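subagent[fold] <- orchestrator: predict structure for attached chain, return tokens only, no commentary.
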Amino acid sequence: MSKLFPRAAVWLTACALSFSVFGQTSTAWPTKTVQIVVGFPAGSSPDLTARTLAEPLSKALGQPVLVVNKVGAGGNIGADFVAKATDEHTIGLMINGNMTIAKLLNPALPYDPLKDLAPISLVGVSPLVLTAPLGAPGVTAKEFFQAAAQAGDKWSYGTPGVGTVGHIGMELLKSKTGINPVHVPYPGYPQVANAMLGGQLQLSMLPPALALAQISGGKLRAIGVTSNARSALVPDLPSMAEAGVADFNLEIWNAVAAPRSMPPAVVAKLSALISEIARSPEIKQKLLQQGWQVVGSTAEGLASRVKLDTAQLGAIISQRAIKVE
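subagent[fold] -> orchestrator:
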């Protein structure tokens, strides 16, 4: 037994379940190449995560594991492909939007994440960093929010687009703090950071790696991370609770999911293996370097997170009438 997967009981249970689902004459799953579909380009964060998991998963399954990129619509093209797959050997590496609020933002979406996707494992999470220009008013976070409230709609915030986590998260923050900056969408986070450096924006929620590069260089100011506690990724930055915003927890995350039609035994087997792989020291370190605090949850843990985030962000989407065509 490999040291990476010491839980023999999990293996035996998964194998027994697989045997009962597929029937006595069926060979053990998998019987061919397993593909991990990623809805983003090669070299993107979800793609890097999928490729980090692919090799150890292939060794554990005894079959090739191939990463396939099906790019477009913020990852929803890849998610839709996974949702409709019927070969029992296709899974997907997805971001949280693909598994939670996608249908709420666009009712015409051809798949329903809650009905058509089976959760496998929450791989990693990361807060965003509420960032402001270096010369932003107020010494403390509380003073900054007071200045923002007084500025009303004279301030602007930037995001990578309508319906992104940065957009919905900022609207959530507005509802909890009374600030009212105007949303300005940009093509991506680098353009948002440049706009803040140029004085066109007063605040934004940036990914930690991008934010820290500017903060450590003395070019931008961190107000706090968007989680309810400090993050291991940026332990020196205060949480939203420390910044005076209660009950605020917003994280980006990635996870593995399967078509809802995937046999439960296969989902159970994949959940056990992927969570174990993600939490192994070597893979955990690789994911940390990619900007992810590893979770490696059970399928039930991911399902719970999907439900929680869908409810929280869905309420803001409804309240603010946010739609993506």
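orchestrator: received. Logging for downstream: Confidence is low (pLDDT under 50) at residues 1-26. Residues 299-320 form the longest helix (22 residues).
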